[in-house]
Design goal:
This protein is of the alpha/beta class and 268 residues long. The protein has one domain: 3-Layer(aba) Sandwich (Rossmann fold). Helices cover 46% and strands 13% of the residues. The chain has a 7-stranded parallel sheet, sandwiched between helices. Strand 2, helix 3 and strand 3 form a beta-alpha-beta unit. Helix 2 crosses helix 10, helix 4 packs parallel to helix 5 and helix 5 packs parallel to helix 7. The N and C termini lie far apart (52 Å). One of its GO terms (molecular function) is oxidoreductase activity, acting on CH-OH group of donors.
Length: 268
């Protein structure tokens, strides 16, 4: 038998072939990179955004042009505020309506960081509420909806984006780190509560990643300090994070459950 010709005529399916994934905060930064990578693994994408409609549309167009799928869209955009339960529900409703399938993968990448980097003593109540509303309440609502609606008995994946600052504990990140620490605790318990469903729940906790959110409000000195603190001598890039999330979304990751994976080049 000609093995090479046999393999070429019957290519192996992609690991996420036709599975439906929702990525929140996917119009830019880490969320965008995750969405594009999941599409490259065969997934159909819901690109969520809160305000950057044009940027979200560009992400969807990039996916649909790069990974065409039988004349139907591989990616759609849905505006939603993750801190609003009706909006989170709409993400799942639209995914099921357009793709005709239950959602397999939820990646919650939506998040905010106060670019003023205030001390706890100088953090306003409004900034505290905003940070916890998006980072913590948003993660909770996404987890709650996913726990009730993700596909059972294989392929169900909940992946939340936390931060290595939970371990870094730097001044100026008190409220942000606290909002993410709550998420990490929640996902560890959620993984146990999902016993019997076949759904896994994990966090990925990036270190400093060269995105618009990272650079906002930072001085050149602060950026150089972050680079010096990393054993690999550079900032992280979104391409360092997306493949890890891609792995967590596939069947190959089944034995990883209730974990927080820090991806920071040794920064923490």
């Amino acid at each position: 038998m000609d093995i090479s010709s046999s393999n070429s005529s019957n290519p192996s399916p992609l690991p996420l072939q036709d599975r439906v994934a929702i990525v929140t905060g996917a119009s830019r930064g880490i969320g965008k990179a995750i969405a594009v990578h999941l599409a490259s693994l065969g997934a159909k994408l819901v690109i969520n955004y809160s305000s950057n409609r044009d940027q979200a549309q560009l992400v969807a167009e990039e996916i649909n042009s790069s990974f065409p799928h039988n004349h139907s869209p591989r990616a759609i955009t849905v505006q939603a505020n993750v801190s609003d339960p009706s909006h989170v529900k709409s993400l799942f409703d639209e995914a099921e309506r357009v793709f005709g399938s239950p959602v397999h993968v939820l990646v919650n990448s939506a998040g905010v960081l106060d670019p003023k980097y205030p001390s706890i003593a100088n953090t306003s109540l409004e900034d505290f509420d905003l940070t916890f509303s998006v980072n913590t309440k948003g993660a909770f609502l996404c987890c709650k909806e996913a726990a009730n609606r993700l596909k059972r008995d294989g392929g169900g994946r909940i992946i939340l984006v936390s931060s290595s600052m939970v371990g870094g504990l730097k001044p100026g990140f008190g409220v942000y780190a606290a909002s993410k620490a709550a998420v990490e605790t929640m996902v560890k318990i959620l993984a146990k509560e999902l016993k019997g469903t076949g759904i896994t729940a994990n966090c990925i906790a990036p270190g400093p990643i060269a995105t618009e959110m990272y650079f906002s409000g930072k001085t050149e000195e602060q950026i150089r300090k972050n680079i010096d603190e990393c054993p690999l001598g550079r900032l992280g890039e979104t391409k360092d994070i997306a493949p890890i999330v891609g792995f967590l979304a596939t069947d190959a990751s089944e034995w990883i459950n209730g974990q927080v994976i820090r991806a920071n080049g040794g920064y923490v």
